[in-house]
């Protein structure tokens, strides 16, 4: 019966598709997502389309409703495990970072009571040791763990696979590399790497573990298509944001707005469930740590800056300075994107080509400069007198460095003094942001100190981004934005003397504006900022500055992740086609491509010759009719051809089509490419001279129903079809000479029969064909 279905599919293709023109005609071509052409380092398109070949149809026919139910349950179980795994990874990273930072500042503060120079050396060596550990792990063990990982994950969910980004060693390198780079005091954060960490955990679960390290199980290895893995990786991305910011709703919206290119209601439920699980795990860990079992881990670590006790209301007069904050955020965010793009491009072109030693040396030098600036600049600032305890009740001044709170005593001659620059410089980034967001702390910072910190930290963040360590830009962006936001707040307090204005509120708006101007997120970022500050009253103001900063930033360049993806050679398909595509046809877009096709029954030697002579990933398969017509009958993937050549089980002596009844030599899993790997290459396959003279019938292994478009369809429509369906190839064909039917909405609303099971497992279900 299955062979009849496949034969009917081939016959239908013969009826619908027109004659394949000669190579000189050039009217029929194959539109394929470019990868190598843009300089991508091994980037390859993913096969999100279901390949309905004979092995797939046979495997689907053998699976009943019990199997479908098992797969649905397993998906929800994986969603639970992704949430638990990502939450535990976030707990471990935050626990390690907070303890390393606590030990560092405690040791430094204890030593500087006797000698600031010795304390300075200890501080530098502590940071250098952590950073060296991070860069050594990345360069020697997991090169794909460098950076935030968000551009690569965004490319994966857009349909482009970069080798190595979702491997087990990348996960390990991301976790321990983040601990070293963030604990070492570099101007970067751990939030972006947590998104990558969640995606790695999801991918490893989807493929049943890691075969290389013997951590796999065949019982959970059921989600073998790129489409199923994509859904789980989306859950992992949302879990990473939820774990980083304790913002489960923001995590869902981040996955929807920023990284994924394909969305559906069933996926929304699982992503929301995963984020909720993360929130429970993180909250449970924090409650457990309150008993003092986590060392230096206290109210810091997990980001939540509660400013609910700050400004209760705002006046119409304040909208102008708030709008100015949005403009500043757009300008500084666009400048940040451009500078990081230029420096990263120069670094990759000239510096990183010289080997891993240069990468390690570069990061160590940046660590040394960062330590000198963060320790040395506060020494040059005069200390300020603590505020009057009667005028400011509840404020403890001073506090020693390394503890949670404001008013750090650093190089001060008197006991009742504090160093405002050390409060934000000689501190962890989370605690520094909490200090900048703090309410009821008027005149805590001088404008001069904030300007110095803004210039220096902005420069350090630009230089540090792109180095060979795991690096996120969320927290550095919040640091930069909250600094100039607090500056504007100080000016507003000085100008509007009678208004109840909180400088911490303007610091929050500045943080939102810089992130909006750099990353160009709106809805998800707005919700994240509300969740991490626990102040819903500021929602309209955050919306205002985000809209302004994004509009200003879009005027100059693309968002940070889009710029970095383009630099890495990841060919992202944006949400909308370019304007010029409306005036181009599919034929014009594919006219420069040479179509390389195979006959249905082809000699093995010819397959090897074609695969070695070009790098195409898909080939049309043609068949000769009795009247001499050449018709396209399907599409065969390069990876499938390599599997057939490697197995050698389907070679035949006859140059005629085989009888597909009874063929059951392959499972659908045999054709699955391992995730984030380059897969098999033609150079790895060794065939004898006699085997090269044998034949191979491609009909049982091809996709008999790939997507096709007429040659005069606008390229804009082709673009939307390609992106929204997650395709890898589209055939461009001449106008068909006849039509065999018309499908309307009513034809798609078919009642489910007893023999056809709809499933969440696959987007395309196999049902019995009906005649009408």
TrEMBL record:
A Pfam family that the UniProt record links to this protein: Voltage_CLC
Residue intervals passing through the bilayer: 67-96, 116-138, 232-255, 267-286, 319-340, 450-468
Subcellular localization(s) per the UniProt record: Membrane
Keyword terms: CBS domain, Chloride, Chloride channel, Ion channel, Ion transport, Membrane, Repeat, Transmembrane, Transmembrane helix, Transport, Voltage-gated channel
Alphabetical list of PROSITE patterns matching this protein: CBS
Organism domain of life: Eukaryota
GO-annotated molecular function: voltage-gated chloride channel activity
InterPro entries hit by this protein: CBS_dom, CBS_dom_sf, Cl-channel/antiporter, Cl-channel_core, Cl_channel_pln, ClC
Keyword ATP-binding: no
CBS domain segment(s): 702-758
Matches recorded under CDD domains: CBS_pair_voltage-gated_CLC_euk_bac (cd04591), ClC_6_like (cd03685)
Entry keyword annotation includes Phosphoprotein: no
SMART domains in alphabetical order: CBS
One GO term describing the cellular component: chloride channel complex
Membrane topology, from the record: Multi-pass membrane protein
Family as reported in the entry's similarity comment: Belongs to the chloride channel (TC 2.A.49) family.
PANTHER family: CHLORIDE CHANNEL PROTEIN CLC FAMILY MEMBER, H(+)_CL(-) EXCHANGE TRANSPORTER 7
Name this protein carries in UniProt: Chloride channel protein
Native species: Ensete ventricosum (Abyssinian banana)
């Amino acid at each position: 019966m299955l062979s009849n279905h496949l034969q009917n599919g081939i016959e239908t293709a013969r009826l619908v598709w027109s004659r394949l023109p000669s190579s000189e005609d050039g009217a029929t071509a194959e539109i394929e997502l470019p990868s190598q052409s843009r300089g991508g380092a091994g980037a390859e398109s993913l096969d999100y389309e279901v390949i309905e070949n004979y092995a797939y149809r046979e495997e689907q026919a053998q699976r009943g409703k019990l199997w479908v139910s098992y797969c649905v349950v397993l998906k929800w179980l994986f969603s639970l495990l992704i949430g638990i795994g990502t939450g535990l990874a976030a707990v471990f990273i935050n626990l390690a970072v907070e303890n390393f930072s606590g030990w560092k500042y405690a040791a430094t503060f204890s030593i500087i009571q006797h000698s600031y120079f010795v304390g300075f050396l200890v501080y530098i060596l502590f940071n250098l040791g952590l950073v060296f550990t991070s860069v050594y792990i990345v360069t020697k063990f997991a090169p794909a763990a460098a950076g935030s990982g968000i551009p690569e994950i965004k490319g994966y969910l857009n349909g482009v696979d970069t080798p190595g980004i979702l491997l087990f060693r990348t996960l390990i390198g991301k976790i321990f590399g983040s601990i070293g780079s963030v604990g070492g005091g570099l101007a970067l954060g751990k939030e972006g790497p947590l998104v990558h960490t969640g995606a790695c955990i999801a991918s490893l679960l989807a493929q049943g573990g890691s075969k290389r390290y013997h951590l796999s199980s065949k019982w959970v290895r059921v989600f073998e298509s790129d489409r199923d893995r994509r859904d789980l990786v989306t859950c992992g991305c949302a879990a990473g944001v939820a774990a980083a910011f304790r913002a489960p709703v923001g995590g869902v919206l981040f996955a929807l707005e920023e990284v994924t290119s394909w969305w559906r209601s069933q996926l929304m439920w699982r992503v929301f469930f995963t984020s909720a699980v993360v929130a429970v795990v993180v909250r449970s860990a924090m409650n457990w740590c309150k008993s003092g079992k986590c060392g230096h881990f206290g109210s810091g670590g997990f980001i939540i800056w509660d400013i609910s006790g700050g400004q209760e209301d705002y006046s119409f007069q304040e909208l102008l300075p708030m709008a100015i904050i949005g403009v500043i955020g757009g300008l500084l965010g666009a400048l940040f994107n451009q500078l990081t793009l230029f420096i990263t491009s120069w670094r990759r072109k000239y510096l990183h080509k010289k080997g891993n030693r240069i990468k390690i040396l570069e990061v160590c030098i940046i660590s040394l400069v960062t330590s000198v600036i963060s320790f040395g600049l506060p020494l040059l600032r005069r200390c300020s007198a603590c505020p009057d305890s009667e005028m400011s009740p509840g404020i403890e001044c001073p506090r020693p460095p390394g503890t949670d709170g404001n008013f750090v005593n650093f190089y001060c001659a008197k006991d009742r003094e504090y160093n405002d620059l050390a409060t934000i410089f000689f501190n962890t980034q989370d605690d520094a942001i909490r200090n900048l967001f703090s309410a009821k702390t008027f005149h805590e910072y001088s404008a001069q100190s904030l300007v110095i910190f803004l210039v220096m930290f902005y420069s350090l963040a630009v230089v540090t981004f792109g180095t060979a360590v795991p690096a996120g830009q969320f927290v550095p962006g919040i640091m930069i934005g909250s600094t100039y936001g607090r500056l504007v707040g100080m000016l507003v307090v000085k100008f509007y003397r009678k208004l109840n204005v909180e400088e911490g509120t303007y610091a929050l708006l500045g943080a939102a504006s810089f992130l909006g101007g750099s990353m160009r997120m709106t809805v998800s970022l707005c919700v994240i900022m509300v969740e991490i500050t626990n102040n819903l009253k500021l929602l309209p103001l955050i919306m205002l500055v985000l809209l302004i900063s994004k509009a200003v930033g879009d005027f100059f360049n693309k968002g940070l992740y889009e710029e970095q993806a383009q630099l890495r050679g990841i060919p992202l398909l944006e949400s909308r086609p370019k304007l010029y595509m409306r005036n181009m046809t599919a034929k014009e877009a594919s006219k420069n491509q040479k179509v390389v096709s195979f006959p249905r029954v082809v000699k093995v030697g010819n397959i090897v010759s074609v695969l070695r002579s070009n790098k195409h990933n898909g080939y049309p398969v043609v068949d000769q009719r009795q009247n001499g017509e050449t018709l396209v009958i399907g599409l065969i993937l390069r990876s499938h051809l390599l599997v057939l050549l490697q197995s050698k089980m389907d070679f035949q002596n006859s140059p005629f089509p085989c009888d597909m009844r009874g063929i059951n030599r392959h499972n659908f899993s045999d054709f699955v490419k391992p995730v984030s790997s380059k897969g098999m290459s033609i150079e790895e396959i060794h065939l004898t001279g006699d085997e090269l003279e044998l034949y191979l019938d491609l009909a049982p292994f091809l996709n008999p129903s790939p997507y096709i478009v007429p040659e005069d369809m606008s390229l804009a429509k082709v673009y939307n079809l390609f992106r929204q369906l997650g395709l890898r190839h589209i055939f461009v064909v001449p106008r068909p000479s006849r039509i065999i039917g018309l499908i309307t909405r009513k034809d798609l609303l078919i009642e489910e029969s007893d023999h056809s099971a709809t499933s969440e497992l696959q987007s395309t279900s196999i049902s019995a064909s009906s005649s009408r």
